[in-house]
Amino acid sequence: MSQPVVEGDSYRFTVKVKGNPDFDPAAYARAKSGTKLARGANFACLLSNTPIDGNYIKTEGKAGRMGARLMAIVAEGARGRVYLPPLPEHEAIARQAEPAVEAGYWNLPDDPRNFWTLNYGLTRFGDLFTPRQLVALTTFSDLVAEAIERCRRRRRWPPACPTTACRLDQGGTGALAYAQAVGVYLAFAIRQSG
C-alpha cells in the first residue's frame, strides 16, 4: 500500500508491504482510514491532522488550486503486480503529459443529485483525470480504430462473406462486423482501465 510520509511542511508517498521488517501497524491503520472525517467535504490536513472546512476545499477546487500527487507506480513483475514508490523524476515526467486539446473537454451534466464534482471545480469529463491518464486513454482509444481496420482487412471467414458485409449493428456476420465486435470489447477494456 502507498503510505504518506510527512516531512516538515511537505509529504511524499512510500510503498509499504505487510510483512516488511519496518512495517508499522499503527501507521498502516492511519493510512488505511485516510483523511476523510465524515460525510461530505470533511477532511483532515495530512500535515497537521487538523480538520479542513468543506467550503474551503470547494473554494480551492473552483479556484484551480487542487492538484494530484503520484502515490505509487504499478509494474508487472514475474509473480504479478509490483508496487514501487514514486521518485521526484517520475512525478516530473507525469506532469509533462500533454493530452490532445479536445480530450475530455465535454461538460459534465449540471445534476447535483448525481454529479458532485462540479462543487469542486471539476466541470468537464477531462477534469476527472490527470493529463497523463488522458494521454493514455486517448492513445488507447485511437488504437481501437486502428485495430478495427486491421481486423477488417485480415478477417476472411466465413469465405462466403465479403469484407464489405453488413455492420455489426445491422446483424452482420462478416469481416466488418467481426472487426467492430473486437472494437467493442477493446473499448470495454479501455473503459475498465480508466
Polypeptide structure, described:
- It is extended and about 65 Å long.
- It folds into two domains: 2-95, no CATH class; 97-194, no CATH class.
- The protein has five helices and seven strands.
- It has 194 residues and is an alpha+beta fold.
- The protein has a three-stranded antiparallel β-sheet with strand order 3-4-5.
- The protein starts with a strand and ends with a helix.
- Strand 3 and strand 4 form a beta hairpin.
Descriptors for this entry?
194 residues; extended; three-stranded antiparallel beta sheet; 2 domains; alpha+beta; two-stranded antiparallel sheet; 7 strands
- Number-wise, the strands total 7
Which radius of gyration do the C-alpha atoms yield?
23 Å
Mean pLDDT: 81
Separation of termini?
A: 20 Å
SSE order in H/E notation? EEHEEEHEEHHH
Low-confidence stretches: none
Strand % is 15-25%
The strands making up the biggest β-sheet line up spatially as 3-4-5
For the sheet with most strands, the description reads: 3 strands, antiparallel
Structural class: alpha+beta
